[in-house]
Amino acid sequence: MVQINLQHCRASASVLCKQLSEYDTVIAFVQEPWIRKEKILGLNIKGINLFRGCLSDHPRTCVLIKGLNTLDLPQFGTRDVTAVRIDYKKADRMVVASIYLPIDTAPPTKEPEQLVSHCESKNLPLVIACDSNSHHTAWGSSECNARGIRSLEYLATTGLEIANIGAEPTYVASNKRTVIDITLASGSIMQDIHAWEVSKEDTMSDHRRINFLLEQDKPA
Questions:
Q1: How many angstroms separate the Cα of 144 from the Cα of each of 110, 136, 180?
Q2: DSSP state, residue 54
Q3: Burial (CB count within 10 angstroms: exposed 0-12, middle 13-18, buried 19+), residue 5
Q4: Across residues 213-217, what is the average pLDDT?
Q5: Domain of 168, in residue numbers
Q6: pLDDT digits (tens, 9 = 90+) for 4-32
Q7: CA dist., res. 28 & res. 63, Å (int)
Q8: Closest CA to 8 of 74, 79, 78
Q9: CA-to-CA distance for 196 and 213, rounded, in angstroms?
Q10: Does residue 158 fall inside a structural domain?
């Protein structure tokens, strides 16, 4: 599984495509893809299905999936939320979602809440890759801000757990190094997430790529 904010950059999309082409089975959670005239560009990869939360309004999220049976969940889709149901070997079904939380909107927002509530009511495991635009030491930031505190307060009311490990920055700009990209998972599937890491490879974006494995049995 791969998580990355491409910052609407063509070069970042190209780097991601090169990586994804190497895998037989992969789920990529993308925020701020490269777009032009409402279309997501640069991510048309042979054998990989691309899902987007909405068909217009400058999408800020998408999910790319290869090697798995999938079902789009458009009822939860917006420009900032893309949700897909997949078949998973441990559970009959699970849901994955790419979410962007706008910096001008106080978290949590309605659509992600609806998705989380739906998965909890249907007992569906959920994995969310999120650009939170917020800071909190709970996911590795060196400081907390009001957005981060509100986000953590909301997470405490759900069955979601934070998969982030350590404090390696996920956002690196000339004057800022911080952790704002978060991986969340239902408690029922957290034990299946392994090898979570922030890649040091150049992404051509200020955001660094997050890689992790989702598998039923922990590797030896």
A1: 23, 4, 11
A2: -
A3: buried
A4: 77
A5: 2-214
A6: 999 999 999 999 999 999 999 999 999 99
A7: 6
A8: 79
A9: 7
A10: yes
38: confidence class by pLDDT, cuts 50, 70, 90? confident
Give, in degrees to the nearest 5, the angle at Cα 106 between 100 and 111: 50
Give long-range contacts, CB 8 A cutoff, 24+ apart: 104-110.
Answer: 106/147, 106/150, 107/132, 107/134, 107/147, 107/150, 107/151, 107/154, 108/150, 108/151, 108/154, 109/80
In a domain, 220, yes or no: no
Residue 32 covered by a domain: yes
The type of residue at 100 is: Y
Predicted TM-score (pTM) above 0.70? yes
Burial of 1 (0-12, 13-18, 19+ CB in 10 A): buried
pLDDT tens for residues 77-92? 999 999 999 987 655 7
The Cα 94–Cα 87 span in angstroms is 6
Residues forming beta bridges with residue 178, ordered by sequence position: 171
With respect to residue 190, please indicate whether it lies within any of the assigned structural domains: yes
As for how many domains the chain has, the answer is: 1
Handedness of CA 26, 117, 131, 54 (dihedral sign): positive
Does the structure show a pLDDT above 90 at 208?
yes
CATH code of 154's domain: 3.60.10.10
Distances (CA, A) of 184 to 29, 95, 109, 131, 151: 12, 12, 16, 11, 12
Burial class (CB in 10 A: 0-12, 13-18, 19+), 190: middle
Whether the ω angle into residue 108 lies within 30 degrees of 0, i.e. cis, is yes
